[in-house]
C-alpha cells in the first residue's frame, strides 16, 4: 500500500517561516550569551578582567591614585577601621613622590596594582612608548620594595587588543571594572553610595578613587562598607577574587 502526501505552497511557506523564526531566536540567544561574559578578551589572546563568577559574595573594592596626597589617608583609615582589604592601583610617578603613603598602603595589608608610570592613554601610544612606560613603572615599584605587581589598570581605562598584548607581554594582567562609583565627578555622597550599592553583586570589581579629585569618597566609603556588611558581602583584593573563580571572555575590538 502506498501513501501520498500532498503539500501545498502555503504549508511550505508556513514551515519555512517557523524555521526562520527558530533560527533567528537561537542566534539572538547565542549573542546574548556572548554579551554576558565576564572578561574582555582577544580570544585566544590575553584577557582583561572586569568581573568574575563568584559564589562567595565576594567583591573587590579598587582605588585609583594618580595625584594628590589629601584623600588617600582618610580612605585608608576608613578601610582599617572596618578591617576591609582592597586593591590600590597606583601611577608610579605618584608613588615615587609619595613613598610614605605607599608604605602605609602596604603595611595595612592592601594589594598594590600598577597604572604604569605616566597617566597617559595607552591606545594613543605606539608599542615602544608603552613598553618604556611600563618599564619605568617597574623600576619605581622595585625601588619602593614592591617587587611584584601582577595586575595593571590601564591609565584612563582605555585599551584595545594591541594594548592588551603589550601589557600581557610585560607580565601584567589588565584589570578593568564592572561597577563605576563615579566618585571622581563628586556627585554627592548619596549618589556615590547608590552607584555602588544598586549595582554591585558578588564577583564585581568596584571602581573608586583616592586621588584628590575625588573629594567625597571617604565619606561614601563608610556607607558602602556598612551596606556590604548588612548584605554579607566581603571585600577582597583582586588576587583573592580571581583565585579559583570561573572566568569567561568576550571579544573586544
Structure report:
The chain has 253 residues and is an alpha/beta fold. The protein has one domain (39-251): Glycoside hydrolase/deacetylase (TIM Barrel, Alpha-Beta Barrel), CATH 3.20.20. The protein has nine helices and eleven strands. The protein has helices at 9-35, 72-82, 92-97, 99-107, 127-143, 161-169, 189-197, 217-230, 238-242; strands at residues 39-41, 47-49, 58-65, 87-90, 111-114, 151-152, 173-175, 179-180, 205-209, 234-235, 250-251. Strands 3, 4, 5, 8, 9 and 10 form a six-stranded parallel beta sheet that branches. A hairpin with a 5-residue loop joins strand 1 (39-41) and strand 2. Helix 7 runs parallel beside helix 8 (217-230). Residues 1-12 and 14-37 have low confidence and may be disordered.
Amino acid at each position: 500500500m502506498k501513501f501520498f502526501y500532498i503539500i501545498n505552497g502555503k504549508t511550505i511557506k508556513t514551515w519555512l517561516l517557523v524555521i526562520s523564526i527558530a533560527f533567528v531566536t537561537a542566534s539572538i540567544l547565542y549573542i546574548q550569551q556572548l554579551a554576558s561574559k565576564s572578561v574582555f578578551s582577544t580570544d585566544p589572546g590575553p584577557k582583561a578582567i572586569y568581573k568574575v563568577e563568584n559564589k562567595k559574595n565576594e567583591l573587590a573594592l579598587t582605588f585609583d591614585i594618580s595625584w594628590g596626597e589629601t584623600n588617600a589617608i582618610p580612605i585608608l583609615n576608613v578601610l582599617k577601621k572596618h578591617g576591609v582589604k582592597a586593591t590600590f592601583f597606583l601611577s608610579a610617578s605618584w608613588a615615587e613622590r609619595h613613598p610614605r603613603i605607599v608604605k602605609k598602603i602596604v603595611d595595612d595589608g592592601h594589594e598594590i596594582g600598577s597604572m604604569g608610570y605616566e597617566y597617559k592613554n595607552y591606545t594613543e601610544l605606539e608599542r615602544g612608548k608603552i613598553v618604556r612606560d611600563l618599564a619605568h613603572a617597574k623600576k619605581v615599584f622595585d625601588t619602593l620594595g614592591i617587587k611584584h605587581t601582577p595586575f595593571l589598570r590601564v591609565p584612563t581605562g582605555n585599551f584595545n587588543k594591541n594594548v592588551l598584548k603589550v601589557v600581557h607581554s610585560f607580565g601584567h594582567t589588565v584589570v578593568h571594572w564592572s561597577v563605576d562609583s563615579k566618585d571622581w565627578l563628586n556627585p554627592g555622597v548619596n549618589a556615590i553610595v547608590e552607584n555602588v550599592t544598586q549595582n554591585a553583586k558578588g564577583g564585581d570589581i568596584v571602581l573608586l578613587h583616592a586621588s584628590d579629585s575625588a573629594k567625597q569618597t571617604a565619606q561614601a566609603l563608610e556607607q558602602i562598607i556598612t551596606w556590604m556588611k548588612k548584605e554579607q558581602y566581603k571585600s577582597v583584593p583582586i588576587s583573592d577574587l580571581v583565585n579559583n573563580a570561573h572566568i569567561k571572555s568576550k571579544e573586544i575590538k
